[in-house]
Amino acid sequence: MDSTSDATGHGALDRRPTGSALLRESVTETIRRAVFEELAETGYARMSMEAVTRRARVGKAALYRRWPSKEAMVVELVSEAAAAHLPAPAGSGSLRADVARFVRDTVADLSHSLAGRIIPDLVAESARNPSLREALHTAVLAPRRAAVAALLRQAMERGELPADIDMGLAVDLFGAPLYFRMLAVGGPTDEAYVDRLTRAVLAALAASR
Questions:
Q1: Distance between CA 33 and CA 35 in Å, rounded?
Q2: What radius of gyration do the chain's Cα atoms show?
Q3: Inter-residue contact 150 to 89 (CB < 8 Å)
Q4: What domains appear along the chain, each with residue ranges and CATH number?
Q5: Rounded Cα gap, residues 59 and 196, in angstroms
Q6: Model pTM greater than 0.85?
Q7: Exposure pattern of 31-52 as b/e (b: 16+ CB <10 Å)?
Q8: CA-to-CA distance for 14 and 4, rounded, in angstroms?
């Protein structure tokens, strides 16, 4: 028997990528960084697959083996990044705590230097590009809204929200004020602001019928 395995086969579960698999992961991570840096620096409209290959120092084949187009590449990588920062599916047991956590986590996410430049550009480009808008909605926005809706339904089950709230409006209220402040008008987002926004969102949620 292979020394890395036992009778239950658990050794196979512990194996990490080696050789060519590890190289592929390393190349993909290099490309990922290059895509986000290129998006932040030049924007989606001006970004090209060729520019990404130059920044990542890889051949064109390395990109086209993974994605057939710039749109497919950007949507997949952005959706992966967004999925890593989805609200937790299970709430804390308190709507106030869930809202405060959402606000703090979103402040942290949007404070990243690349995210703060990439997100406004993709929003603007989506208004001009229906295909990109639909792809980003399906891959990025819809899962995030679904996660927020799940937290709101848990609050309704606990009696913290009325059962007849406008769910679509409630989901908008959960994040829209913070996105607008950080990506459009600016302003401090310190702990005092987080507390004020949390209280404002809670009041608005209770009235969103």
A1: 5
A2: 21
A3: yes
A4: 10-66 (1.10.10.60), 81-206 (1.10.357.10)
A5: 50
A6: no
A7: bbebbbebbbeebbeebebebb
A8: 9
Q: CA torsion sign, 61 to 63 to 66 to 68?
A: negative
* Residue that has been written with the tokens 């840096």 in this structure: 37
How large is the greatest C-alpha to C-alpha distance in the chain, in angstroms?
65
Cα–Cα distance for residue pair 104/190, rounded to 1 Å: 9
pLDDT of residue 11: 41
Nearest Cα neighbor of 193 from 96, 104, 111 is: 104
The contacts of residue 43 (CB under 8 Å, 6+ apart) are 121, 125
What does the block give as tokens for 24? Answer: 């592929």
CA distance 104 to 166: 24
Q: Of 170, 178, 125, which is closest to residue 152 (Cα–Cα)? A: 170
Hey, what are 68's tokens? 């057939």
pLDDT confidence of residue 183: 85
Per-residue pLDDT of the chain (209 residues; tens, 9 = 90+): 444 444 334 343 344 444 455 456 688 999 999 999 999 999 999 999 999 999 999 999 999 999 999 999 999 999 999 888 888 777 788 999 999 999 999 898 888 888 889 999 999 999 999 999 999 999 999 999 999 999 999 999 999 999 999 999 999 998 899 889 988 888 888 999 999 999 999 999 988 87
